[in-house]
Amino acid sequence: MKQDIREILAKLGGLPVSVDTISDSADLYTAGLSSFASVQLMLGLEDKFDIEIPDHLLNRRSFASIDAIAETVSAVRAGQEAA
Amino acid sequence: MDMQISLLDRLFDSGLLIDTGVEGVYARSGTFEDVITAFEGLIDRFAGNTGAEVIRFPPGMNRAHFEGSGYMKNFPQLAGTVHSFCGCELDHQNLIKCMAEGSDWTEGQKASDIVLTPAACYPLYPIVARRGPLASGGALFNIQSYCFRHEPSNDPARMQLFRMREFVRLGRPEDVMAFRGEWMEKGKELMGSLEMPVEVDVANDPFFGRAGRLLKNNQRDQNLKFELLIPINSVANPTACMSFNYHQDHFGSTWGLKTADGETAHTACVGFGLERIALALFHHHGLDPKLWPASVRKALGH
User: Fold this and answer.
1) Which fold has domain B2-80+118-299?
2) Which residues pair with B56 in a beta bridge?
3) What GO molecular function terms would the record report (chain B) (predicted)?
C-alpha cells in the first residue's frame, strides 16, 4: 500500500523534493506539503483506494506522513467493511 | 430564528436599515452611517500613528487578480461576478422580449473584467507585488472596501454587501505574527471601551465542500484564524465582528511578494466587519445612539 501512496504523493503532493528521499515516518508538511496539495492528495487517495474518508479523519494528522496516510486508509477500509 | 427576524424588523421599523427586497442587501440611514464613521475614527485613534498607507477600494476588483488569488478553489459558493450585455441590436431585441415574457434574459450576459470584491485585502496584494520587494521592516496598509458574499440570510449580521475595514501587515513571519498578536489584545480593549461583551476564539473560513472540511481543520489546527465574537442575534452563537488572520506565505507565494531580503513575504490581516459592529452597538445599547451610555458616546467621539 505504501508504494501506491508514494506514487500518489509524487503525482499530487507538489513536494519540492523527490518522494524517494522521504522516509515513511517523515513529516510531509515539513517536506513542503501545502494545504491545497493535501486536498489533491486526499481526493487521489480516495480514488485509488476506492474509499471515502469520513469527516472526522479529514485533518492534518491523517496526512502528516506516509505511515499516517497508510493508517488512515486502513482505518477507513476497516470502517467501510464493518459498515 | 424568530429573534433574527425580530431584530431585522426592528431595524427596518426604526429606519436604521431600509429593505430592498433582497435578503442581505440593505440601504443604511444617516444615523447608521454616522455610527460607522464614528467607529472608524475610534479604530484610527486605537491604531495610533502607525504610518500605515491608506487605500480605499471600490466594491469591484480586477477579474484577473481575483482568478489569480485562488478564491474559486476555496469559496466558489460565495463569489459574485459582474456580467454585462455585450451583444448586437438583434440580441438586445431578444433580451427585451425575454424580459417582457418573464423568461431568462441573462443567457447572453458576458463576464466582464470585474468581480465583486470578496474580502478587502484581495485587491491589495497584486498592487503591492507590482511595486517590487517590500522595504526593510515590511509594510502596513489601512484599507477598506465594500465586499460581496453570496449568502442570502434574514440574519441582519450576515449581509451580502457589507464593508470590511482592515489593517494588513506584510513582512517577515515573526513581524506579521507579532502584529496579529498585538491586535488581538487591542481588539478586545477597543470593544471593551464600547462596553460590549467579547470573546476571542479560534475559527475557520467557510471552505467549500468535503475538501473544505480538510482545509477548515487544517486552519484550526494551525491557529491561523481567530475571531472576536459579540452576541448580536444569539448568545449561544455570537457573531464574528473582527478577525485576526495569519496567511503564512499563501499570498506571498501567490503574488511573488518579497521582503527586502528576497524571502517570500508572509502576511497577516486584522479585519473589522463594520456593519456587524454597528449592529452589535445597536443591539447592546439600543436603537437610538443619543441614548447610549455616556462612556460609549465618548469613546465614539460624540
Assistant:
1) BirA Bifunctional Protein; domain 2 (3.30.930)
2) B144
3) aminoacyl-tRNA ligase activity
Residue A27 DSSP one-character state: -
Domain spans of chain A, in order of start: 2-82
In contact, B81 and B118? CB cutoff 8 Å: no
- Look at residue B263 in the predicted model and tell me its pLDDT: 97
Nearest CA in chain B to A29: B218
The C-alpha atoms of residue A67 and residue B57 are separated, in whole angstroms, by 48
CA distance A43 to chain B (A): 8
Mean pLDDT by 10 residues, chain B (302 residues): 71 97 98 98 94 98 97 96 95 95 94 98 98 97 98 95 98 98 97 96 93 91 96 92 96 97 98 98 97 97 87
3-state secondary structure of B137: coil
| CA atoms within 13 A of residue B10's CA, in its CB half-sphere | 15
Minimal CA–CA distance to A20: which of A29, A9, A12? A9
Tell me whether B221 touches chain A (CB under 8 Å).
Answer: yes
Predicted local confidence at residue B108, as pLDDT? 87
Phi, psi of B152 (to 5 degrees): -55, 135
Compute φ and ψ for B61, nearest 5 degrees.
Answer: -130, 165
Q: With contacts defined as CB-CB under 8 Å, which chain B residues touch A39?
A: 211, 214-215
Rounded Cα–Cα distance for residues B95 and B243 (Å): 43
pLDDT at A35: 83
> From the CB of residue B193, how many other CB atoms can be counted at a distance below 10 Å?
16
| Least confident segment among A52-56, A66-70, B187-191 | A52-56
Task: Measure A39 CA to nearest chain B CA, in Å.
Answer: 6
Task: Please measure the distance between the N-terminal and C-terminal CA atoms of chain A and give it in whole angstroms.
Answer: 22
Mean of the pLDDT values across residues A42-55? 92
CA atoms within a 13 Å half-sphere pointing along the CA-CB vector of A33: 27
Partner-chain contact B218 A59, CB within 8 Å: yes
Please give the ipTM for the structure prediction.
Answer: 0.85
Task: From the options 3.40.50.12780, 1.50.10.20, 3.40.50.150, 1.10.1200.10, give the CATH code of A2-82.
Answer: 1.10.1200.10
Residues 200-219 in B contacting A (C-alpha not used; CB under 8 Å): 210-211, 213-215, 217-219
**Is B98 exposed, middle or buried, given 0-12, 13-18 or 19+ CB atoms closer than 10 A?**
middle
